[in-house]
Write a structure and sequence with these properties.
The structure holds three protein chains of three kinds. By secondary structure, chain A is mainly alpha-helical. Chain A has a single domain (4-87), classed as Helix Hairpins, CATH 1.10.287. Chain A has three helices and no strands. By secondary structure, chain B is mostly helical. In chain B, the strands form two sheets. Chain B has a two-stranded antiparallel sheet with strand order 1-2. A two-stranded antiparallel ribbon of chain B has the order 3-4. In chain B, β1 (39-41) and β2 form a beta hairpin. In chain B, α16 crosses α23 (546-564). By secondary structure, chain C is an all-alpha fold. Helices cover 70% and strands 1% of the residues of chain C. Chain C is built from 20 helices and two strands. A two-stranded antiparallel sheet of chain C has the order 1-2. The chains are: A mainly alpha, B mainly alpha, C mainly alpha. Chains in contact: A-B, B-C. Chains A and B meet through α1, α2 and α3 of A and α8, α9 and α12 of B.
Chain lengths: 100, 565, 538
């Protein structure tokens, strides 16, 4: 049995990677992936908590959070497609016609 | 834990009737436009019975206006049932608790979405007579025809998203569990991301949607992570339980503090607080005006419900200063000042409104911050929360009203530059007069409701700081030095309101003093026009007179039901 | 007293009826079907006039019936007549509908009620009459609201509300530069009133809840209770600060130098009726508010700032008179002379004596009938001579004897010639000023005398002198045609004003007694204690 704190530690690392990537990367798809990594870090925490407290809620939270993440990706990709169809780029830096 | 089935008795159904109605509306929206004359043969016989789904659609179900009608009816019904069952109170399962407070917000959400749905008839018109382009048509005509067909196709999508947004928001207002709260918040947020990107006529829609989506999902991922930390700390996410653990906590547990801090980031983005507000003006400017209006009112109200629950229920210490007091105060002041300064320099009316919405978030955050100063007694806290909720309620009237007017301009392909407002006073005096009312109310000029809410917020903050500042000081300066820091939140609101007058007045002045590019009056759009006028009249009536007092009473008792629990 | 009243709450009636009627007359034609809307538009001028006359009658009856017999010295601080039962507007934050009158407000109320029908009469042939006359009614309601309100919230609302009809009058019926003038008018007065609002709010936050008011907020806007509360703002520095904030609001409205620049522009561009009301009543709102709020609630601060008042008054008086001499545009001249007269009001208040304050009150009233007369004359010039540049004209008496007569009378009254209304006020203020400040009085007195001489001379030339006895020198705008004299309605309006000017010159005691009684009571009640506390002596 792995200690819960190890799982949480992994979560912290994942979260940091995700956060760092989300702020530094310009490609919207990569940012989307970073967001997924962050959500997975949260999921790990829920799992760790569930096993630590022997609480079934944590498992439920994880399942729902995964569903949310899936919905988010679906919506995100659709929106990115719409951006690509008008501006032919998915770089967050190049899409800047809204600046005034 | 009782089973879901046994919970669904009529009394419970009545508690969540508005939400059930919205759910029904969503299902109807999916089914009804597909109703046709398809029949089904009962096997082994020759009897054909109507099957409804499929076949050639009936004239009514084929009408592209139908989705809008369904959405409008559903939201109107939801609004009325919320109003009717305002004082009903009770638990639904163990995740939702319905009381006046959540009903009050359901009113706000359904009213905002109802107005947006009304405005869509002008902004995203359904054209029952649209036909496919002919080969003989010129490019212009053929483009127009194609656009009309596309508009018809989009009706269902748009209105279904309006309803899911509403459903998510109103469920969120009654959540007692932090996770439930977050899931509902995500339902509303994800719908609103698409709504922002829906504005496809020009290039900005996709970009606005992308920016709003990326920033929104990053902060919500941060929020969920923060929540997971809270779960690790406490073992469950029930808010009353969290509050009890928070109260019992000795010192500051890093897990809990970081968790709450990260969640504040997520909710701060929802209300448009600095420094997470940077996506707000882009999103508003890129979205169609009714959607921007929903973001500025309902979505903001949603963020504030979450903030109020997190700050006042979970993390409010029984005595002394809350750990977030200083941070929130600074954020509030920065937010309002930044919002106002940016609005001053902006030349796009939608951006001006977006920044003004940021500034308003700052005012409300300042008021909330004052409750955590450790000086507020329960009466003062109730006053402040009442003021904030009242502000969120009346904001639907004047902020969304202003966006509705912009959406009338947008319907003629304008509304993105200050010049588009020029000469509105001559083109359409009634609409210009309504805009005048909205701007003054946003600025907080008596006797409009915007003043009343701002006065109450300032009042709350001043009451918190009452008694500080030495009476014997001989100069204003020495008095100012003796006053409690909380007081400066009130001063910041007053100064910022004065600052904001400039850009609100600018909009008013260009409407009356500049010459319009065209003398043509705006589109007739009777239903939207009525809605705008109703908003303007209510803005006045909720500012002075018996109606304002009854609304205040209503909000006050809603807040009591929340603070008492 | 209650049993004799014909109407239970006359002050609310005279405020709300014109507001409601004006709104109805403006909105109904848009809502009704076409044929009846047409008919309504045709009679809306007559209906407006009827309402205005009815209100003038009610107000006059009030004066003759009840107010004349009141011993005003007994109406002490915070005492008002004709008070209504307070109606809760927003009890949660302590806003009530509470009205009342005293010798400070009643002359203003009567003046407003009289001036509205007169200005309607003068502009009887206005274009777009179905909007113009209802707008004047709304204006009347808003102005009366300012003078009767005893609740600072309501007071402020009416204060702002007066802006809208005046703004529209300038914008829709104004001269060529109307946009600029309307914008300047709006921005100046609006910005100033924001300062005032902040001042009012600080006062509000220092009030203590009284029974039934401010259940939610713990504060209230009731002016009477504010006055009664001992030491409303205990901190001296803050009190001075609030006093200054209020002063900014009131001084801009009066207007006093250096925030007077909106006035000439607004006057020149405004239609005649707008100018008449602007000069006649709206400027008085500043002085009224100053006396009603700043002086009444904060007498100590007022005494502290007396030098500032004298300075503002002197500068306004001298500067207004000086600039006035350089003008060739008739409306500008009257506008600057108004600035000058408003300076006198400040000087009157600064004396802190019953005589000076009564003089200031009478000046508010007298200027309220003289300046509308002059603006009516200016409007008639515009109408019949198509210009306001009167500097080059000579001998107009030959062509327009009535116009010339009214103009002469108006200027003489404005310059304070004896037996005309302006004289009483000026002499009272000057005497009081001399009693308090001694030889400092020379500056205002000399200014008045020099300008009087200058004007009488130049008016005499414009009106009578002529090398060519047949035609005089007429402006080019007439293109050689002979100008016509006043129309019947212009003349009727001006004759009424002229008659009032003479009446109150010969019999000033109609209002003077009430004003001086009230001033004595006011000084004794409000000032003396504060003066002693500050060991104030001039």
């Amino acid at each position: 049995m792995i200690e819960a704190s190890w799982i949480v530690g992994l979560g912290v690392i994942l979260f940091s990677i995700g956060l760092l990537g989300a702020f530094t990367r310009k490609n919207a798809i990569v940012v989307l992936m970073c967001i997924e990594v962050m959500l997975n870090a949260a999921n790990l925490n829920f799992v760790a908590g569930a096993s630590h407290y022997s609480d079934v809620d944590g498992w439920v939270f994880t399942a729902i959070a995964i569903a949310i993440a899936a919905a988010e990706v679906a919506i995100g990709l659709a929106i990115l497609l719409s951006l690509y169809s008008t501006q032919e780029t998915i770089s967050l830096d190049e899409a800047n016609i809204l600046r005034n | 834990m009782s089973s879901i089935i046994s919970d669904m008795d009529p009394a419970t159904a009545q508690l969540i009737l508005p939400e059930l109605l919205m759910l029904g509306g969503i299902i109807a929206m999916i089914l009804v436009p597909n109703f046709g004359d398809a029949t089904m043969r009962i096997p082994l016989t020759k009897i054909r019975i109507p099957f409804l789904i499929g076949g050639t659609r009936f004239a009514t179900t084929n009408n592209p206006k139908l989705p809008n009608q369904i959405a409008t009816t559903t939201l109107a019904l939801a609004f009325m049932t919320s109003l009717l069952f305002l004082s009903e109170e009770g638990d639904v399962g163990n995740l939702l608790h319905v009381d006046e407070f959540s009903r009050m917000f359901a009113l706000v959400f359904s009213a905002a979405l109802l107005l947006a749905s009304l405005a869509t008839t002008v902004r995203l018109p359904a054209r029952p007579k649209a036909s496919a382009p002919l080969d003989t048509d010129s490019t212009v005509i053929s483009d127009a025809k194609v656009n009309a067909l596309i508009d018809n196709r989009r009706q269902v999508d748009f209105h279904i998203l309006l309803l899911t947004t509403g459903l998510g928001m109103s469920l969120m207002a009654m959540a007692t569990n932090l996770f439930m709260l977050f899931v509902c918040l995500e339902l509303a947020s994800l719908s609103s991301y698409i709504l922002v990107a829906f504005h496809k006529e020009n290039d900005v829609g996709g970009e606005a949607g992308t920016k709003y989506f990326i920033v929104g999902s990053v902060v919500s991922a941060i929020g969920i992570y923060g929540m997971s930390l809270l779960y690790l700390w406490n073992g469950n996410l029930d808010m009353t339980d969290l509050a009890a653990s928070w109260d019992a906590m000795e010192g500051m547990d890093p897990l809990a503090t970081i968790g709450v801090g990260l969640m504040l980031v997520a909710f701060g983005f929802k209300v448009g607080a600095a420094p997470f507000h940077l996506a707000v003006p882009d999103a508003y400017a890129g979205a169609s005006s009714p959607v921007a209006g929903v973001l500025a009112t309902a979505s903001k109200a949603m963020g504030f419900v979450a903030l109020i629950r997190l700050l006042l229920v979970v993390t409010m210490p029984s005595e002394g200063q809350a750990f977030w007091f200083l941070a929130l105060s600074i954020i509030a002041v920065v937010t309002m000042t930044w919002g106002n300064l940016a609005a001053l320099t902006s030349d796009n009316p939608k951006r001006v409104l977006a920044y003004s919405s940021v500034a308003h978030a700052g005012y409300m955050l300042a008021a909330l911050a004052a409750t955590g100063s450790g000086l507020a007694d329960s009466d003062t806290s109730a006053l402040i929360v009442t003021a904030v909720v009242f502000h969120l309620v009346v904001l639907v009237l004047f902020k969304l009203g202003a966006f509705l007017i912009l959406s009338m301009l947008e319907a003629e392909g304008r509304g993105h530059r200050m010049e588009d407002l020029h000469g509105m006073g001559r083109r359409d005096p009634v609409i210009a007069a309504s805009m005048f009312v909205f701007m003054l109310s946003l600025a907080g000029v008596p006797p409009l409701s915007g003043f009343l809410s701002k006065l109450l917020m300032i009042n709350g903050i001043v009451n918190v700081s009452a008694g500080s500042g030495s009476a014997s000081a001989s100069t204003a300066l020495s008095w100012a030095q003796g006053v409690d820091p909380v007081f400066w939140l009130a001063a910041a609101i007053v100064l910022n309101s004065a600052l904001s007058l400039f850009y609100y007045l600018r909009i008013v002045l260009v409407m009356f003093f500049e010459s319009p590019a065209t003398e043509k009056p705006l589109k007739r759009a009777p239903s939207l026009r009525m809605a705008i006028i109703a908003c303007a009249v209510l803005t006045l009536l909720f500012g002075i007179g018996p109606l304002s007092n009854s609304l205040l009473d209503m909000v006050g008792s809603a807040v009591d039901s929340f603070m008492g629990s | 007293m209650g049993g004799e009243r014909l109407i239970d709450d006359p002050l609310s009636v005279i405020t709300l009826v014109p507001l409601a009627m004006g709104l109805i007359l403006m909105i109904l034609p848009r809502v009704l079907p076409n044929s009846s809307a047409e008919r309504l538009i045709q009679v809306s001028r007559n209906i407006s006039m009827g309402v205005a006359l009815a209100i003038a009658t009610i107000t006059t009856m009030l004066f003759l019936g009840q107010l004349g017999s009141i011993d005003w010295t007994n109406i002490t601080q915070g005492g008002y007549v004709l008070q209504n039962e307070a109606v809760d507007l927003i009890p949660a934050i302590g806003v009530t509908w509470k009205v009342g009158a005293d010798a400070l407000s009643f002359p203003m109320i009567w003046l407003t009620a009289i001036l509205i029908p007169i200005s309607m009469l003068v502009e009887w042939d206005a274009k777009r009459a179905h909007l113009f006359f209802p707008l004047l009614l709304i204006m009347e309601g808003a102005l009366l609201g300012v003078f009767v309100a005893l609740d600072l919230f309501v007071f402020y609302v009416f204060w702002e509300l007066t802006l809208i009809p005046m703004f529209l009058l300038i914008l829709l019926w104004g001269g060529e530069d109307r946009r600029y003038a309307a914008m300047k008018f709006f921005i100046y007065t609006f910005t100033a009133s924001v300062f005032m609002l902040i001042g009012i709010l600080v006062m509000y936050f220092h009030t203590e809840a009284i029974a039934g008011l401010g259940s939610l907020s713990g504060h209230h806007f009731d002016l009477i209770a504010m006055t009664a509360q001992e030491n409303l703002i205990p901190n001296e520095g803050l009190r001075h600060f609030v006093w200054l904030l209020l002063l900014i609001g009131f001084a801009t409205k009066m207007p006093s130098v250096p925030v007077h620049t909106w006035l000439p522009d607004a006057h020149v561009q405004a239609p005649t009726a707008g100018s008449m009301l602007l000069a006649g009543v709206m400027l008085k709102m500043g002085a009224y508010g100053f006396l009603r709020i700043s002086v009444t609630v904060f007498p100590e601060s007022t005494i502290e700032f007396v030098p500032l008042l004298i300075f503002l008054g002197m500068v306004s008086l001298v500067y207004g008179a000086w600039v006035c001499m350089g003008q060739t545009n008739l409306k500008r001249m009257v506008a600057y002379s108004s600035v000058s007269h408003m300076g006198l009001i400040f000087l009157g208040i600064a004396t802190m004596q019953p005589l000076g304050i009564a003089g200031a009150l009478f000046m508010m009233f007298a200027h309220g009938i003289i300046s509308p007369l002059l603006f009516a004359v200016a409007g008639a010039f515009k109408h019949h001579y198509h210009t306001l540049e009167i500097g080059s004209m000579r001998g107009i008496a030959h062509h327009s004897p009535w116009l010339a007569a009214h103009m002469m009378l108006g200027w003489m009254a404005s310059l304070g010639l004896p037996l005309l209304a302006g004289f009483v006020a000026e002499i009272a203020i000057l005497i009081a000023f001399w009693m308090t400040y001694g030889w400092l009085v020379l500056l205002p007195a000399l200014t008045l005398i020099v300008t009087a001489a200058y004007y009488l001379n130049s008016m005499q030339r414009t009106i009578f002198e002529s090398n060519d006895s047949e035609h005089g020198i007429l402006p080019d705008t007439l293109h050689g045609e002979d100008p016509s004299d006043l129309t019947w309605h212009e003349n009727a309006g001006m004759l009424t004003l002229a008659a009032m000017t003479v009446l109150f010159g010969i019999m000033p005691f109609i209002f003077w007694d009430m004003m001086s009684d009230w001033s004595s009571g006011f000084v004794i009640d409000t000032m003396i204690e504060a003066m002693q506390a500050q060991e104030w002596s001039p």
